[in-house]
Amino acid sequence: MPELTVRIKTKSGLLKVDSLSGTSTILQLKQHVASWMNSMPENVVLMIGYPPKALDDDTKTLLEVGIKSGETLIAQERVSPAVIAPTPMVSDAVKNDIGSPAKSRPHIQSENFEDSGLLMRQVVPADNSCLFTSVGFVLNGKIDTTCGSHMRKIIAECVAADPELYSEAMLGRPNKEYCDWIRKPDSWGGAIELSVLTHFYAIEICVVDTINAVINRFGEDQPYPFRVFLIFDGIHYDPLYKESLKGDSIQTMFPSSNEKVLLEAAELAQEAKSSRQYTDVDKFTLLCLECRTHLKGQIEAQQHAKSTGHTNFGEVAS
């Protein structure tokens, strides 16, 4: 059988695999990705489609799961609580004000905050800007739905400034087209946008994925002094925080040297998956923002995208 080419989007770049065929297994593809990610195949989660759905059966062939030549998949690394390594603390400053340089945030220092309690979810509006509102909350400790426009501008400028890194292959569309698209208030944010924001604000952003029970860590390869946490249910992002025992303050940023909170997040991911705290992607409703067609479930969204070329969808509140 002729070889096929697939592209794998990871948080560290785009991997092209062109040595497999339709009869190759998911495990064989994972082995290629694991080598690229410097990980183990069993820790690699491959996702396909829109919204992304995990490929769970490693024994199935690429042909059986519908992977064709030219397909683009997403790869994430499953975090195991037993193997999380500490990240060195290098500074006590962090970018805490949207659009401003780093400065001191005394209330987020672990020595000034009781290291107890549980990670809690702060619900933010489902308005197609939930990712940006969530990032704004962990940076500033409050819900501000207006911060999305500023972050979209930041992302567009960063992407436009580096067309070699942010190529059409990476973005899935021409650089300028992407920059125009992300500025629109109804465009969803995801891995690309998180990657830009983590570097702009010089802070590690950890996303608790409740579908696959993994933590996606953006900026973990950098010596950033603090990390923050978001939770993602397949459609919607919310920020996570800790509240003091007295109830008079919250903690949204944690020193990168704090392993405990990372372990807690890994446990939260497992618990959330076990209790099915994620969106049923076969039943949720989307609106095509290009032709205003209502679509139910990921299959209809995929079929609509293939038949029309439309890829800009918005969540419809139930």
Automatic annotation (TrEMBL):
The keyword GTP-binding does not apply. Its EC number is 3.4.19.12. It catalyses: Thiol-dependent hydrolysis of ester, thioester, amide, peptide and isopeptide bonds formed by the C-terminal Gly of ubiquitin (a 76-residue protein attached to proteins as an intracellular targeting signal). GO terms for molecular function: cysteine-type deubiquitinase activity; zinc ion binding. Gene3D superfamilies: 3.90.70.80, Phosphatidylinositol 3-kinase Catalytic Subunit, Chain A, domain 1. The keyword rRNA processing does not apply. Pfam families: OTU, UBX, zf-C2H2_OTU1_C. It is an enzyme of class 3 (hydrolase). It comes from the Eukaryota. GO terms for cellular component: cytosol; nucleus. PROSITE patterns: OTU (PS50802), UBIQUITIN_2 (PS50053). Its main location: cytoplasm. Keywords: Cytoplasm, Hydrolase, Metal-binding, Protease, Thiol protease, Ubl conjugation pathway, Zinc, Zinc-finger. It is found in: Cytoplasm. One of its GO terms (biological process) is endoplasmic reticulum unfolded protein response. Hydrolase that can remove conjugated ubiquitin from proteins and may therefore play an important regulatory role at the level of protein turnover by preventing degradation. This is Ubiquitin thioesterase OTU. The lineage of its organism: Eukaryota, Metazoa, Ecdysozoa, Arthropoda, Hexapoda.
